[in-house]
Specification:
With 279 residues, this protein is of the alpha+beta class. The chain is built from seven helices and eleven strands. It starts with a helix and ends with a helix.
Length: 279
Amino acid sequence: LHDIYKNHSMAALFLALFVCAITVFLCICAYKYDNKYTFIGPQASKGVLSLNDSDIENHPVMILADGWEYYHNRLLTPEDITTGLNIPNEYIYLGAYGGFESGNPEQSPHGSATYRLTIKVPETPRQYTLELPEIFSAYRAYINGSLAAELGNPDPDHYSPQTLNRTTSFEAGGSIDILIAVSDFSHLYSGFVYPPAFGKPDAVSHVLNMRFLFRAALCTVALTIGFLAILIGILSRRSKTAVLYGLLCLFFVGYISYPIVKTFVSSYYPFYALENLSF
């Protein structure tokens, strides 16, 4: 009996250490690669971010969260900006608002808006990459006056929602003007909610790949545990708790898997409905 108790204690201790190690590992990965606000780096002020060679070398990946020009209820083009007649309503921190209401509960969270940021970079041309995360729910993105990406149709009269995680790479020197015109009439969120990554192509690609692998690993572990729990509950014919726990794991995957889905699929329906159902 003493040997059995000792073996069970060692097994329990090993299992506890294993669970703690996995938990710490996942927390570190989540903090480093799945949290955009933990990247320390230069931030824009009043629509302008100034970078020198040292900034780019020390921060090959930056998260463009602060200082964006915000034009409420206006779908602007680069030509509209050059006229000098359009003044931003405010300068915002991406993620501060969940819609176009700008913190005003009496204002509709849906409609249209334009976001603009100017990045001053060294004169010597080099390659840069800009992440375009899920932008709700249709947009046109211009870089230095040229259309760099378009998803769905933000025109209110012909609105068509589409969302996708994507990147665009380009060569620039001296100045980079980013203009993103967005419309949303269909989602819980509206506009540019998730701040994008910007920097050297290899560095941005590494961060995005690690973020994807982390989410994929998390979904794989949860799916495996969920199916095993359901199987144990069905085979034992008396463990309803195991079945419920398995279903919880499956719904957890349905709720957190949107970054993986939105890496490959731009369709708007039915993925957000499934995400809400899972929650």
